[in-house]
TrEMBL record:
This is Homeobox domain-containing protein. InterPro entries: HD, HD_metazoa, Homeobox_CS, Homeobox_TF, Homeodomain-like_sf. It is found in: Nucleus. It holds the Pfam family Homeodomain. It comes from Rhamnusium bicolor.
Amino acid sequence: MRIRKFKSHEEFAVRRKRVRTVFTAGQLQELERHFRLNKYAHGSTRDKLAQDLNLTQKQVKIWFKNRRMKFRKELSSLNNRGPPEEHITEVTLEEVFNMEDVFKDSN
């Protein structure tokens, strides 16, 4: 492993900063559409999606990863509503889509 020495703390900080990706409304709409169909984007699907949206494969991969985490939090919050005996144990795909609409409306 190679260790890089920096001249100053500022040089270190500047090199470590990463620009945050800002997705357009159209990109988000298309990513969400694909997410509803499949929670994972693999190989050629991810490549084509990235190419169509003018994004890198890594940006698409990270977006799906972050979206799955958001989805899990949404499911978890639904499970934690009400008494324990009313917790959701199994969710159908149709219910998931309805849940996503509820969360969009509540934000």
